[in-house]
Amino acid sequence: MTTSTSDPRDEIRRRAAGLGFEVCRFTGLDAPWPATARLQAFLEAGRQGDMDWMAATADRRAHPRSLWPDARSAVVLGLNYGPEADPLEGLALRDRGLISVYARGEDYHDVIKGRLKQLGGWLASRTGAGLKVFVDTAPLMEKPLAHQAGLGWQGKHTNLVSRDFGSWLFLGVILTEAVLTPDAPETDHCGQCRACLDACPTAAFPAPYQLDARRCVSYLTIEHKGPVDPELRPGLGNRIYGCDDCLAVCPWNKFAQAGREQRLAARDDLAAPPLAELAALDDAAFRARFARSPVKRTGRDRFLRNVLYAIGNSRDPDLVPAARARLEDASPLVRGAAVWALGRLLPLPETLELARSHADAETDPTVLAEWAAVQST
Q: What is the mean pLDDT of residues 306-315?
């Protein structure tokens, strides 16, 4: 990069730190890539659920050079988003919804990509080499790259674990044509611990280091498009967007306090918003409330589905009016979730009375199935 004999990575790290990244490490792209076999096994088992894009992009996702053949090195960066308090405390607030820690502030995709572009622009000007930046929206497996670069290891919950920041790191990657000296990869430090596996409310880990997304609360509340399997709905609790359970119980989180001044700011109104208030959102109000938040990407109907499942799980009769109001919603997904919620909140005679007054006018088969289910209980 220069005629100096100093390690050019030192200046890259300084620049990265100035942009708010707590960790910046490097890896080449010639090492064995076992992540390819793990991805193939995941897809062959159908564990991606509705995420058809994972299978459609499997060839490009198989290796960083499959995505960009000219890449020679990766700069892998981490940004700490460790919460101020234990996010699992919110599970006890049954009349409120719990939003995953990562989604309580500005959309991290936008924040990190902007910083990566600044760093990448400087790096390209110094090296003259082409580069591309990534923040988990492209078919690039960042977690294996982070392991190779030494940021951490993929724990038994399949997320990255860092000895310095626990399970709370956002990742960003710069692939470059430049050849940079790689850092040593990290080793696995999970040992005999299985806290993350035992914490999962829907038993989404068929084995350590394996995830079945079809049972994962994050997948079900964010990616899954239709009604959630009734068997899994109670496990959602009051989690209305994502899930922090397997991350929050990781013992390595005790080190995540370091660098706290760099973490992304959370919005107070997204920590544990009232379920009744959220259930009343129309599309315009939803978009306004979650502007610049990752939550907006689910869309209003899918989000209200989650809110209504949380209302049903609350067992709080004071939330009956909020659920009843959604029986007339334009979205069948929302109406069906309202039916399920009321079936959990109301005595059977009242539920049957509602069925008599609403089911006859219903035409959507998924909502009719919900009415049939509550009448058969």
A: 98
Name residue, tokens 């719990």: 98
Alpha-helical segments (H) within 128-240: 142-149, 195-199, 217-218, 233-236
Among 50, 52, 70, 136, the active-site one is 136
Residues 6+ apart with CB under 8 A from 226: 50, 333, 366
Q: What dihedral do alpha carbons 312, 314, 317, 319 form, nearest 10°?
A: -70
Count CB neighbours of 190 within 10 A. 19
Domain count, the chain: 2
Ramachandran angles phi, psi of 246, nearest 5°: -70, -30
Beta partners for 25? 76
What is the span of the domain harbouring residue 37?
8-82+104-176
Q: pTM for the full model?
A: 0.93
CA angle 195, 202, 83 (to 5 degrees): 55
Residue 178: CB atoms within 10 A of its CB come to: 20
Write out pLDDT tens, residues 153-210: 999 999 999 999 999 999 999 999 999 999 999 999 999 999 999 999 999 999 999 9
Structure tokens at 26: 């490097």
- Domain presence at residue 336: yes
In the residue annotation, 136 being an active-site residue is answered as yes
